Amino acid sequence: MFVRTESLREFIRFYPLITFILLFQLVIFLATSLPFIPSREIFSLLAGVNLYIVEGELWRIVTPIFVHAGLAHLLFNSFSLVLFGPALERILGKGKFLFVYLLTGIAANIATLMLEPLTYTHVGSSGAIFGLFGFYIAITMFRKDLLSKENSQTILTIAVIGVVMTFFQANINITAHIFGLIAGFLTGRVILSK
């Protein structure tokens, strides 16, 4: 379930929404990185800056989900989405998957706004990625039939390692990770109870 064996063409066909998110993140990364366009201005316009959100720039609650600070940041979050997103896109369908991904990313950014200083700036999809982990945890608790015992143990182990590593890495939005995870779990609880 968490091992990718598809060809690129198969991946695109089976998981069109994840493919779109990956391409969108790449386009945003290029727009915020290439030297021959006003990349610094674009990055500044899309980053989550708590002060600007409070002053009315509400798009900054959503746009940071797709903006990354460097190639390594983009690759790590994209790799996580490629590994852990497809099973949920298949289980939930495209519409619900997009809803969960955006809702948990937005919840992580709102928590960051509420709990971090006004000067705090943040980017990255890790709040939404942790939201997927939270949703998987809800599956392991409330819909055991959707995941094998082995896959449930794998996702729980990775989620625990992810949470622990959150506190040992520099430049990590701890608030987004924790609240993305909580939002994913709560969203999973609601969706899976229907």
Automatic annotation (TrEMBL):
InterPro entries for this protein: Peptidase_S54_rhomboid_dom (IPR022764), Rhomboid-like_sf (IPR035952), Rhomboid_protease_S54 (IPR050925)
Mode of membrane association: Multi-pass membrane protein
SUPFAM superfamilies: Rhomboid-like
Membrane-traversing stretches: 12-38, 58-85, 97-115, 121-139, 151-168, 174-192
Record keywords, A-Z: Hydrolase, Membrane, Protease, Transmembrane, Transmembrane helix
GO cellular component, one term: membrane
Annotated localization: Membrane
Keyword Nucleotidyltransferase in annotation: no
GO biological process terms held by the UniProt record: proteolysis
GO MF annotation list: serine-type endopeptidase activity
Signal peptide span: none
Domain named Peptidase S54 rhomboid: residues: 56-193
Assigned protein family: Belongs to the peptidase S54 family.
Protein name: Membrane associated serine protease, rhomboid family
